[in-house]
Amino acid sequence: xSTAKASPLKVYGVNIETIRLLLKxxxxxxxxxxAISSRLFSVxxxxxxxxxxxxxxxxxxxxxxxxxxxxxxxxxxxxRTWYPLGRVTGGTLYPGLMxxxxxxxxxxxxxxxxxxxxxxxxxxxAPAFSGLTAISTYFLTKxxxxxxxxxxxxxxxxxxxxxxxxxxxxSYDNEAIAITLLMATFYFWIKAMKIGSVFYGTLTAxxxxxxxxxxxxxxxxxxxxxxxVFVLLLMGRYxxxxxTAYSTWYALGTLASMQxxxxxxxxxxxxxxxxxxxxxxxxxxxxxxxxxKSKVPTTQFKxxxxxxxxxxxxxxxxxxxxxxxxxxxxxxxxRFYSLWDTNYAKIHIPIIASxxxxxxxxxxxxxxxxxxxxxxxxxxxxxxxxxxxxxxxFIIIYSVLCSYxxxxxxxxxxxxxxxxxxxxxxxxxxxxxVYLNIVDVFTTKEEEVTEKSTKKNAKxxxxxxxxxxxxxxxxxxxxxxxxxxxxxVLHCTWVTNNAYSSPSVVLASRNPDGSQxxxxxxxxAYYWLRMNTPEDSKVLAWWDYGYQIGGMADRTTLVDNNTWxxxxxxxxxxxxxxxxxxxxxxxxxxxxxxxxxxxxxxIGFSGDDLNKFLWxxxxxxxxWPDEIRERDFFTEKGxxxxxxxxxxxxxxxxxxxxxxxxxxELFGGRDAPDRVRNQQIPVDQAPELHVLEEAFTSExxxxxxxxxxxxxxxxRDLYEATKFENQISKPLKRSRVVKRPALALxxx
Amino acid sequence: xxxxxxxxxILLGLLWFGSLIxxxxxLTESIDDSVSWKNAHYSRTIDLSKSYVKELDIIDIVNTGxxxxxxxxxxxxDGFDSIPQLSLISFAIFNSITPTEVLHDEIIPHKLFKVKxxxxxxxxxxxxLKITYVYTNVLEPLPAKIGMEQVxxxxxxxxxxxxxxxxxxxxxxxxxxxAKGQEMExxxxxxxELNITPDLPELKPEVEGKxxxxxxxxxxxxxxxxxxxGLLYEHNRPLTFVHNLNRSIWIPASDVDQLSIExxxxxxxxxxxxxxxxxxxxxLKGRFQGTRNHFALSHLEIPTSYSKFANYYFSDLVGVISTxxxxxxxxxxxxxxxxxxxxxxxxxLGWNENxxxxxxxxxxxxxxxILKVPILNAIRxxxxxxxxxxxxxxxxxxxxxxxxxxDIKSITVNNELSYLDVAKGxxxxxxxxxxxxxxxxxxxxxxxxxxxKLDYISKIAKISGFVFIALISYYGLSLIDLSITDKKKRSTxxxxxxxxxxxxxxx
Lengths: 748, 507
What we know:
The structure holds two protein chains of two kinds. Chain A is built from 33 helices and twelve strands. Chain A is mainly α. In chain A, the strands form four sheets. Chain A has a five-stranded mixed β-sheet with strand order 6-5-7-11-10, sandwiched between helices. A two-stranded antiparallel sheet of chain A has the order 1-2. In chain B, strand 1 (37-47) and strand 2 form a beta hairpin. In chain B, helix 1 (2-12) runs antiparallel to helix 2. Chains A and B meet through helix 26, strand 10 and strand 12 of A and strand 13, helix 3, strand 22, strand 25 and helix 6 of B.
């Protein structure tokens, strides 16, 4: 640095800083390129398609936004979901994602005359933002150590599978942009806290606002920053800079976040946000105390401190408890409780527990999602402990909290990944600082050589060893880590390719000759619904498929993945687990026209409705414990059986009947093997339908759609009517053939 | 006679049916009585192998007048509105071997035509007239709802005798392209109001090869003979019907040798409906997916002799459809699900062609080009209701003229903004056709337009200008100092940021 001040180093007459800048830009472009391209596997292998479940809702909302005005979007009442309740969609979503892609769409269309399909923008939004994430991670890490560590963190962030899992092309979900915003907010927070700048505090608040508009996980920031401040206060590190940064962020950020319709007054009323408010208050008191301290003698200040502290704590706790008891402040949300007690959801809220991404994480997942970074992570945290500047405290808190959260819920692996990348980069860069620095080896050599030249040549070999040994150690360590890095890239690519690049709407299998076979049953059936049913048909299906039916089939659903009404979901569960006549009542009361079930028994698709059936039973049992009992669906031995030994309740249930209706006929008189559950479905006890009739079944039987029969027009019971029709259907048909209207047969 | 019928219709007060009767009276009134012909031979061949009806009438006409005549009135063989619209009609005369197309006037649309021969025909000499016409939307499945394993039967309605303005000496009627058929007597609703000719000679069919032949009948048949008949025949193929086809042809501005074509179809099957819900078990058991002989539309066949379909794509509103392949000389597209009667489906098919085969510069005229494209893609056995042929000319080009062998319902010229358009957008010429069928893929439209080099260069200049302005303004913006802290502080090393940290770290 000192040399740079005196006369800037030059290579071929170019300032070395310019070269450094150029190199940095090239590195950034390469990192963004790697980040984006590794997320395109699914587009290349399949197509530009929206993945999974939630993205279909976001996609549908985005389409609504670009075809309507912004205010119409915010006031959107969606009567095509949650029939007959409807959903105040505009007020119950985080609009950040849709607004982002809508804005991009408008800019491309109106400014650049590029009429890109909104679907393609939605598909490619997540990869594009991953490039920005890498850059904001660079800046954050740079604040922790230096730009070398920053570059490492950026490339780690770009390709770490833990983040890729939620940001491949097509996974158009809130997390896609939220992680970028998370990193940006944290960077600006560190910056603001370091230099006590109102400007950076405002930027933090701005990005916090964007984050609030985009993802419910903003609560993480709302709690992490106050915690950071609180810990710093406890460590006695109060500064005016901290005061400025926090007050700016809190005041502006909270006001801004309240502009989101879905958030509204939650920041003032929910317990999730009380920590931020509390720390804000505390900071004012500390600032006041700091002022008092500078004016009064120490002994007096101590008594002042003791009295005020106890009274403030007592007042605060009492106020919190009192306001919660009075109902002014909402108690913690269910999802939050399940963070502390993993069994909480299972007992109290089966809907939350039934979501696979809310399950606790299995330990191999950590290795799977972060590769070698998982063991560099503690080292990085240790290095932070050693330096222990204010910003390192932040890293430590973040690491500790997120390690716990990621262990509790698979989904929160996502928030852990950035900090793993940052700390991993810090430790690796520390290592490289030492081991890649060959300059001092050679400088010492030069000095020794000058000393040695006066001495004899006999000692030369031992001197050489002295130089050689550190070189070799350095070489070994460097090469080892180069290998690790190389392997890390391989691992990330492999994981992305194999685990995270399936759209799940389209499945792929291999033909015997090795060519790819696309199983496209979902879209086949959804498209059939879209094309060949009346536009106002109501489709009853388990909530998992609600968003997809809304997005692809464009039909009204009863329940969807926005699980806001437990009773309604339980009603659907009850219809599925009841016998036909009881289900028919529910169907008729809810104007259901079609019932859709997913059945994987023919091709061995394990994510089908029969495997989710017990959750349906449990959820409806939670609401109607007298009518639905989970125990009845098991055999006497307590097994989940669907074959000959299946319990009568199971065999009578609508779900069982709809899944296996005429299934056994495919196997020519033998019992039909269910390839998911490895059970034999008896051919002689084939289910009969009375209140429903088959309307469509997809190519591999994965989606089966049934039409709910109308009430019989002669007033018969539908059971009798079906029986009657089955008995005389053939003679009836023949007579109909004979009676041709407006035509008479003539001999010729 | 005519007056009589009119009176009855008025008496009954059936005004809507009266219009038909009026039409037939208009028919006779429009025919010039001064021309007199006789049909020496009248032979009709009705091809029922496709989802539309193609009728070929060969009439040997003799001039019975006393002076040379060059006009002949031809009435479409109908008489009771069984043919609502003609999709195509052409007239030719046979002199020696090669047929020559002759001009005609449409006097009553879809009903009455006046043929004008190139040279007048002398009294008592004859000429052979060949008329081909195609009509769609007349076949209907009967029964309308059948089971998946049953065979679809279609009902053809038509006049059993020639409906000519002149008397005929010798008449025969042939139905081809049917495997099994059965004549039905049509019970037409308002049979009393129809001008059905009484006491007609018996006309019995016989099977000859794959055809059903009536006649020849050597009795003289009076003009405007009407005897409605129905033919119920097996036709176990879908009646593919495209409601709307948007066929877009994009001409590139630069000299890349690519012409991209994109077609959007909204189609249905006019064949029989299923009498139950769709059962996949039955579909699999019957192995109906692979066969061409089933009334459900499970695949579309496009011959590759017309086009190579380079880089083609096949998709619908929810994404790519993976079931498509080249088999022999056909591109086979399978919709997501088999389409039974009344079921609907839509899809997009796009591909590239070599521009050189379609676009040529007008001879000796600078900057003028002619594009020659087929009206339709050659999907087999399809009828079309609305066809919109959209031709996207490069931005700023001028549409000059269009020429089409068949009637264009409307021509619209407007602009559409597309990729990197900097002014008004591509010039879009929309040609609307109606009532087409698959053979129209052999017909071409010619489009003449003007596109100058200057237009091309100015577009490029505009785009590069925008990029340049953007870069310059970025540079200009970076010169503006927006920093809040003052210069002095910034020049000192960033001690402020780290001042607190080292003390705590060292402790």
